[in-house]
Amino acid sequence: MAGHSKWANIKRQKARVDSVKGKTFARLSREIIVAARSGVPDPNGNFQLRNAVEKAKAAGIPNENIERAIAKGSGQLGSDGDNLEDIRYEGYGPGGVAILIEALTDNRNRTAADLRRAFTKNGGNLGETGCVSWMFEQKGVVTVGGAVAEEQLLEASLEGGAESYELMESGSTAEVFTEVSNLENLNQTLREKNLNVDDAELRWIVKTTVEVTEPDLARSLLKLMDALEDLDDVQNVTANFEMADELMSLSMA
């Protein structure tokens, strides 16, 4: 898909580090709480919750922690889960790069202050609602792992109502894109076609990208992205920059 940001690939690489830090546990637990609150507290009847639980299990979160998060979200452990709000923030990074931040928070003022501090310290600025969101569109994305024949992927994608797909350069992963409302159907169709579905999620996809070629700018951007993702309330960060793999590796070293 044109305009697909490599930041999705960076985040997959970083996830291994984040899991060591323990932030992944907290992030996924919050996802489970919100999913359980927004629908039935049963993964079999709640697609959002089922996805969150599958991610949590893949990250190694103990079953008892998952069950506790579901109970918290469904109100069985009190009203703590009701305090979480799903909020989107927008801003600019160095070089005018557009950045979208998805957060789950129980304190808007704290989260906004933390984000503003992270932007300011790393050469960016937190903007007003709507300042950059027009550069992105939300899509359903199903990630397929393992070697897959493109003909099989194309056939299954068409049957599932996909808009497009993208084969990663390694050849071992593919991403299939669809409208938000069709994500559950696409996910189920690909599974029924015996494709190895690793993940199904809603993701912000960039419409236009900014090419980053300067090493100093690349370092500044990745430092800002790290600072944003390290914040406790932040769930996802999406930006519209592209850079060569070599520059990306150098900047992350």
UniProtKB/TrEMBL annotation:
Residues 85-241 form the TACO1/YebC-like second and third domain. Residues 5-76 form the TACO1/YebC-like N-terminal domain. Transmembrane segments: none annotated. Its main location: cytoplasm. Signal peptide: none annotated. It is found in: Cytoplasm. InterPro entries: Integrase-like_N, TACO1_YebC-like_2nd/3rd_dom, TACO1_YebC_N, Transcrip_reg_TACO1-like, Transcrip_reg_TACO1-like_dom3, YebC-like. One of its GO terms (biological process) is regulation of DNA-templated transcription. Keywords: Cytoplasm, DNA-binding, Transcription, Transcription regulation. Gene3D superfamilies: 1.10.10.200, 3.30.70.980. GO terms for molecular function: DNA binding. One of its GO terms (cellular component) is cytosol. Belongs to the TACO1 family. HAMAP family: Transcrip_reg_TACO1 (MF_00693). This is Probable transcriptional regulatory protein AVDCRST_MAG92-3899.
